[in-house]
Amino acid sequence: SLVRYNELDRTLDELNTLVKSVRSLQQQPTEDLNQFLQHCHNKNRELTHRRTELQNVRQAISEISPELHSDDTRQLIQKLNLLEIQWNDAERTLTTLIDSLTKRRSEYEDFEHKFIRLIQWFEHFRSNEINDRLNGLTLQVSLEVLKNDIRNILADKRRNDNDEKEIQQITKDYSDILHAHPKADKNGEKLLRIKELNRRWEGLNETVHDSMKNLKYMLSIHGDFQLTQDSLAVWLTDLEVVLTNLEHLSEAPLNDKLQQLNDIDREIHEKLAKIEYVQTCANYLLNKTVDARGLTINMNELTKCCQQLINLTKRIKTIKQKLINSNNRHLDLISSPPRVSPIHKRLASPSSSRPRSAARSPVRSSAGSSTRSPVRSPVHSPVRSIRPRHRLLRSYDSIESEDRRQRADDLLADFEDILLQINGDIRAKEENLYSPTPVGIQIEHLPNEFSYNRTLISTHRKIDALQELIPQIRQELGTYLIQDLNYDPSVLDIMNKWSRLQTLASNKDEELTQNRQQWKNFKRQLDNLEQAAQQVSNQNDHSLSRTSHSKHDTNQRLNEFQTLLKSTNELAINFNDNSNEWILIEHRLQSIQDKVQLLSSKSTYQRCEIKINPNLKHEVLEISCQLDHLELLAHSLEPVDDNEMNQTINRTKLHRFIRIHDDLEILNERIVLVSDRPLSPISDDQIRLTTDLKLILNRLHSIKRVVKIYLEQLEKLLASNELNQSSSLSKHSPLRTSNNNLQVIVLN
User: What is the pLDDT of residues 224-249, one digit of tens each?
Assistant: First the structure.
């Protein structure tokens, strides 16, 4: 018993020494960060591997406790309990230390990566963007100069750090010497050296700060110039196509064509603000000769754009004049001004959803009206032919006075016009009701009070007007009517269609209500999934692989979570409409699925020995950490606000998302390089690494899609705000080019 007691006591001392060695890592100095981080990982694996020894010691104490004195047993148990507490604390400390070191290393390398990426961007810009996209913007020697400036800035940064250390050391030495020997520096050489180093250090710091600030601002202006000029070129191409189709291929009515031409003309004048902004950017880049030596901009493309706008404006005026002349020849056939009856006025009131235009009430004529007074001639709509009245009236000759004939013709014309309007309205409403019911994201675009029955209000008012007109006609022309107008085939057909339309609208409202409820449940379930995924991920970091019981609970939670995720994905299939808003929903689902797969992978392989290349493992870990950082950064940025009119704020957001997109591209290249490296022949290691890389790559593509959507929204918002600001612009700044020969172009 005494021998076993001594062995247990010695084992506890060894384990205590291991715990103390872990706790001493926080105060241990190191020069190689990667080596120290690897040492921490080894200690963490050793703690996990030797944790079972604590259970073995506790079991051994229970076995020999009857043979030992109670004080010795209590002493061993107290020592073991204290060691378990210290063990848990050491594990938490080591985990925190590893996370902190990984983050520090990522931040340490971030500065170098950013400048390397900037140099790569300049190389790519010089080799591809200049020739392929701008075709008018040339950078001669400035890119090489800017690249050298960036390298000089990096060198200045390193020299600044060395200078700062040297200044501190020399200042300390100088103070020590003067303290020991007050007359040692009679000539003041050391003092002059200290002042020189201070001056050099401050000058270099100021140069680095100013150069980087000017460079970033110039790159921002250059990016705005490029985006705006490209969007103008695309817009001009689209405008040419639309105008050609409208002039030669369109079969739309005259009023629609004129309206489209007016819209195009107005859009051209609104684009003047964007052209002025391009001019401002170009003038800034040309004037900044200090920051961009040798930078010249060929403004031929912008001149061509302005000339195209002038030609399009002239072309629009020509087309409008042709259409107006053709319309005037048609209107010359109309002999008298329009006359609107009280029924027409009631139908054209502001309460109606479809007001009558003035063009629908020209002169109406009838058989035998040419021999009557031209002042009281009846009127009819030019969009339809004169319908015979013998199906409604017995004969006009049976009507005695001419005023009665005029009144009869007016009432019947109103009756026919109402029938035509109701028929057209019903056909339009039927097309709307037979269209698919909104689902998913489409419901978000509908007002909360929207219903299909509310869309029938205008038709219902026309039906009421018809029902008011029929008794009036029966009262005034009852003796001359062939039959009751309520039994007229046209009226019966309209009433049948109206009844069918109301039934269809009620069914559509019920279907819309169900779709609203399903979409609401789906969004609630998606929010709950995100919260549950985060909770499971947090709990897994502390409880996974601790005991078999916790592992069983974790696996059970993961199985339940996967079942819920599967049902949510099945619901999502019904709502997929391939829109940009749905891509954001897919990104959220993909993020949840990636977390579940990652947790399942950790649960499956958490007891397998990692036998892959340590450097490869560390690189995968770094990529994952950087991807987490970029995803957090993308989510932390303010969302795109469509009501934000401050262009500076919108451009700042745009540039931040562009930088995130560039970082994602660099990570993508690193993942490709890691995937091409040879793997360990052990199948478990290969499967695990392949699975991790696949999950990381899927997350990266998902984040890139979301960032791309935000970039498109910001570009559209910038263009829209520039159009809105064009109304306050009355003059345009002159345009300066590299050869100073471009004239000012103003569109009237």
Answer: 666 666 677 777 777 777 777 776 66
